[in-house]
Automatic annotation (TrEMBL):
Signal peptide span: none
SUPFAM superfamilies per record: Pili subunits
Source lineage: Bacteria, Pseudomonadati, Lentisphaerota, Lentisphaeria, Victivallales
Superkingdom, taxonomy of origin: Bacteria
Organism: Victivallis vadensis
Segments forming domain DUF1559: 15-69
Name of the featured protein: Prepilin-type processing-associated H-X9-DG protein
Record Pfam families: SBP_bac_10
Length: 215
């Protein structure tokens, strides 16, 4: 009888536990979004780039967007850096509570929207490149930072790609994963946060990636 009751209660407990983690994740992203707004206020309206260095392998250490927010005093530092030169944390606001320790690699679970198509996406960030809030017409409708996972390498990523420019699959590509009961969380350019099902993000619903924006 006890085993039967435990079997009945366990799914409900797991569901409640993940709901709590998803809420904590949204709280983290809200703080990160507020930090980005403060950073922009001190940097001529520019949000953080993916990295201050002009390209991969050039002046990248301690210049990732996570480093910029922590070292600039916009976010509290983690108790433990997984690898500080690469901006990777093991705890604190920059760590998604639903990420396992063995999944941590290029971030604590959150990533900037990065894209290779320089002629698109007013909300994209890259090396030495960041959105300027004053130039964006629909800041409340465009994604900036979200849950992240790279399915090819099976770990967290520092950036994720537009699903309309690079197909999202479960065998490759950095993307927003179905981490929270089939969905993922994100913060938008204006600082507000939202959670949506995986297919909402993958389908670029409401053009949240800015793929159709005319520049």
């Amino acid at each position: 009888m006890i085993a039967i009751l435990a079997g009945m209660l366990l799914p409900a407990l797991n569901k409640a536990r993940e709901s709590a983690r998803a809420s904590s994740c949204l709280s983290n992203l809200r703080q990160i979004g507020q930090a980005e707004q403060m950073y922009a206020g001190n940097n001529d309206d520019f949000l953080t780039p993916l990295n201050l260095g002009a390209t991969w392998g050039v002046n990248n250490d301690n210049n990732w967007w996570t480093n910029l927010l922590v070292n600039g005093g916009y976010l509290p530092p983690p108790k433990v850096w997984h690898w500080e030169p690469s901006g990777v944390v093991k705890d604190g606001v920059l760590r998604c509570p639903s990420v396992n320790d063995n999944e941590i690699s290029a971030s604590g679970g959150y990533a900037l929207f990065e894209n290779v198509a320089a002629d698109k996406h007013p909300n994209r960030a890259s090396y030495g490149c960041a959105p300027k809030l004053g130039r964006v017409r629909n800041a409340s409708g465009l994604i900036q930072i979200a849950d992240s996972y790279h399915y090819q390498y099976k770990n967290t990523s520092i950036g994720f790609l537009c699903p309309k420019c690079t197909e999202w699959t479960f065998s490759s590509t950095a993307q927003i994963p179905p981490r929270h009961r089939g969905g993922g969380n994100a913060v938008f350019l204006d600082g507000h946060v939202a959670g949506h099902p995986y297919l909402y993000w993958k389908g670029n619903s409401d053009d949240v990636f800015g793929h159709e924006v005319k520049r």
